[in-house]
User: Which sequence fits this backbone?
């Protein structure tokens, strides 16, 4: 089967060649490579042209507007022709046999998920993370490094959100709401590199105009999948998680007034669209959401403060200090 690999690139001139090379060096050879430049401001376009000369079969896409990481992946999806597709961030690499090991054993498989390695800026492995097969869809939030069945994505109209948003969390919700037939591979061949200049470390560490509105729009579109009580609970949980993660990850040291404005947007949305969020069974330390402990504590703690009418006071204080290192990227 053909595997399409979509590589979104934003200011990735330093990493892009290495990323493409790791795909070209795969032990599996029926691979289509699509690089999507998301309106980079560095020399990424020159690097892409250099790659094209070396590998003429590589497909290059140049976005006319900045679409964000998820939007760039969507642009690649539009032209992908493989039976399965994998996203690889331009500053990451995969082991040479990763795609071969990730191939599904059943053609009915909608999704293949695996573990990963987190690599520090000095090249050393910070940790290797494997998952429990039963809980991997909850725990592995990355959109990259997975194999998605293209028919499954198209049949369920699943795509990623556009804009500078927390696309991984919201795509995770879309996946869970669509009950994929999935396989878990107990390997860790995706190497996630800590890049202090990446969007998650720079752009997302402040409130950008329109970002929370785009997140809310995507979450509202997921309502069509919430066809029973269990799925409504899942969507409510991820909507709350997205809003809280938006405030926690982007709100460090933004100041009092920006935090209050963003807090009001977040909780006005939750109260209007998910009025029972403060009763949601998944926002509980003792319910098996199978999320990381720090995530469960953050969600339960902020909801507890909300019930005590103290959450706005907490976030106002939070906007004045820098606690960004508390919140994990993986």
Assistant:
């Amino acid at each position: 089967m053909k595997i399409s690999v979509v590589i979104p690139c934003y200011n990735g001139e330093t990493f892009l060649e290495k990323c493409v090379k790791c795909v070209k060096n795969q032990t599996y050879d029926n691979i289509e490579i699509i690089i999507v430049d998301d309106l980079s401001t560095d020399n990424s376009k020159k690097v892409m042209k250099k790659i094209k000369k070396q590998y003429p079969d590589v497909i290059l896409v140049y976005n006319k507007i900045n679409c964000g990481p998820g939007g760039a992946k969507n642009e690649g999806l539009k032209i992908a022709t493989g039976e399965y597709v994998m996203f690889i961030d331009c500053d990451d690499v995969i082991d040479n046999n990763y795609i071969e090991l990730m191939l599904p054993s059943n053609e009915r498989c909608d999704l293949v998920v695996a573990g990963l390695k987190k690599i520090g800026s000095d090249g050393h492995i910070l940790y290797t993370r494997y998952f429990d097969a039963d809980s991997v869809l909850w725990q592995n939030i990355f959109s990259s490094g997975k194999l998605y069945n293209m028919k499954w994505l198209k049949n369920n109209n699943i795509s990623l959100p556009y804009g500078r948003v927390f696309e991984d969390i919201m795509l995770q919700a879309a996946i869970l709401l669509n009950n994929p037939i999935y396989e878990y591979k107990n390997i860790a061949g995706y190497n996630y590199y800590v890049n202090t200049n990446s969007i998650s470390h720079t752009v997302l560490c402040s409130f950008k105009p329109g970002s929370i509105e785009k997140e809310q729009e995507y979450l509202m579109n997921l309502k069509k999948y919430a066809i029973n009580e269990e799925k409504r609970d899942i969507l409510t949980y991820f909507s709350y998680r997205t809003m809280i993660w938006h405030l926690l990850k982007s709100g460090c040291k933004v100041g009092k007034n920006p935090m209050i404005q963003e807090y009001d947007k977040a909780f006005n949305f939750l109260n209007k669209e998910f009025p029972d969020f403060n009763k949601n069974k998944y926002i509980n330390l003792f319910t098996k959401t199978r999320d990381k402990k720090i995530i469960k504590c953050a969600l339960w703690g902020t909801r507890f403060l909300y019930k005590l009418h103290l959450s706005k006071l907490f976030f106002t204080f939070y906007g004045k200090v820098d606690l960004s290192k508390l919140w994990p990227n993986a």
